[in-house]
Specification:
450 residues, five-stranded mixed beta sheet, two-stranded antiparallel ribbon, 41% helix
Length: 450
């Protein structure tokens, strides 16, 4: 049962220990930034806390610790960074989006890396009255996911791609919902609330990226034809409910989103293995969720968002938040491709008296698989094979047509996938349904002079 966000917030413990030390250092940090001095004139302990200390400082967070050379480079160009720190420190109640970007660009310029979490912490230290102390966008997105699932708060207008806007949104939300007046406690709420959600509601699914090796498996065909692939368990540590994206080795792109629905399974996709060797390894079952052919998922574009290339995922990865933040939106509005019109009952029996709406029915994957295993992916009318025309993206793509309309069969009709179903391309499928009852496949073939 969902609860109010206010009830979830109430009773959160106040910051203590390192939280209080960070609060005290933050107050000094703002005052030093306002002065705009050279780094050497800053209060020594404050500068060390935010830039040089090995623990809980900007140099430590993000993609590893800054090297000595990177710290030296930042110091050498300090007067380029200082005016932007000063501008933000002097504006405690108004977000300065352009200034945030300038600071990010300078840090990236002189460290050659995307120290995102570190930069977020720097900004949170400069404006604690409007930004959160939770500085990891992945953790913030996870918190929002918990809140959407378990509270009645609508959470509209939230931006999952931008830490500054997400942080400002949450701070404003908690200020509105709670009776808390202390800005530091408001800033601290997201940091502690995620821990509370994880304790109360359990772990959320993780996101993974895996390398689908075409030389070993025909994953695209399996996903199109049977709706799942098997993944050997000893290679990774998936949990049921996790989302798994597939990077296709031959296409050099991410193309499929799947979901882990079972573990400790016997492999069920043997016929899609290139060498056809059977193994005794237990597997996960990865169910088809969505497909995207957007060019933004090509390897060169992925490299602009934290991807290190296909070789980097020979071992499945799950710890690249910047990349997953970029990938996810490409699949949000996608759905299972509408390849056929087979209802999806518990058995292969067909439901009666349902009007046929081409490509709108859920699929009975078992029936579809048997049909394609017998007839292949070549259109029975015009002979088109999508892979021959479009290359890798066409593999396994085909509609499946009922020779006997669903609206004319009885409740207890038992489908024969080989006799009653036939593979056809979308164009020929539409033409078959140009009359009711549909054209016979051979009659349409004559009309089209194939």
């Amino acid at each position: 049962m969902k609860q109010s966000l206010k009830e979830l917030i109430n009773g959160l413990e106040e910051p203590k220990g390192s939280g209080l030390r960070f609060r005290n250092d933050t107050n000094q940090f703002i005052e030093e930034a306002k002065r705009g001095n050279n780094w050497s004139k800053w209060q020594e302990n404050v500068f060390e806390q935010f830039f040089e200390k090995n623990l809980n400082c900007v140099a430590k967070l993000g993609n590893g610790q800054m090297t000595t050379a990177e710290k030296t480079s930042i110091k050498e160009h300090w007067m380029e960074l200082a005016p932007h720190l000063k501008a933000i420190a002097e504006s405690q109640n108004i977000p300065l989006w352009n200034e945030y970007n300038e600071i990010r660009n300078i840090i990236r310029k002189y460290t050659k890396r995307n120290l995102n979490v570190a930069t977020n912490r720097l900004l949170a230290g400069l404006q604690p009255q409007i930004l959160c102390t939770e500085c990891d966008i992945t953790r913030i997105n996870k918190l929002v996911d918990y809140l959407r699932r378990n509270t009645d708060e609508p959470l509209s207008g939230y931006d999952p791609m931008n830490w500054e806007k997400a942080s400002y949104y949450l701070y404003t939300l908690f200020k509105r919902i709670s009776d808390e007046k202390d800005y530091w406690k408001l800033s601290y709420i997201p940091y502690k609330l995620l821990d509370r959600c994880e304790e109360r509601f359990g772990a959320l699914p993780q996101k993974w990226l895996v390398f689908a090796n075409r030389s070993m498996w025909h994953h695209a065909e399996a996903l199109h034809e049977i709706g799942f692939i098997s993944w050997t368990m000893h290679r990774t540590n998936f949990s049921i409910g996790d989302e798994v994206y597939l990077f296709m080795s031959d296409e050099r792109r991410i193309r499929f989103l799947t979901k882990v629905v079972e573990d400790n399974c016997v492999r069920g996709d043997e016929k899609y293995r290139v060498d056809r060797k059977k193994t005794n390894h237990l597997t996960y079952k990865l169910k088809y969720i969505a497909e995207s052919l957007n060019d933004g998922l090509k390897e060169d574009n992925l490299k602009l968002h934290g991807f290190n290339g296909g070789r980097s995922i020979q071992t499945p990865m799950h710890n690249n938040p910047e990349l997953f933040e970029y990938i996810s939106p490409f699949f949000q509005n996608q759905s299972i491709p509408d390849y056929d019109e087979i209802p999806n009952p518990e058995t292969v029996f067909e439901g009666a008296k349902k009007e046929i709406i081409v490509n709108r029915y859920e699929r009975n994957r078992e029936a579809r698989e048997k049909c394609i295993a017998a007839h292949g992916c070549k259109c029975a009318v015009c002979g088109m094979n999508f892979e021959e025309v479009y290359g890798p993206i066409g593999r396994g793509y085909i509609h499946v047509h009922h020779k006997i309309p669903l609206s004319s069969i009885g409740k207890e009709y038992e489908l024969d996938p080989i006799k009653d179903l036939v593979p056809v391309c979308p164009n020929c499928h539409a033409m078959l349904h140009r009359k009711d009852p549909p054209y016979d496949v051979n009659d349409l073939k004559e009309l089209g002079k194939f």
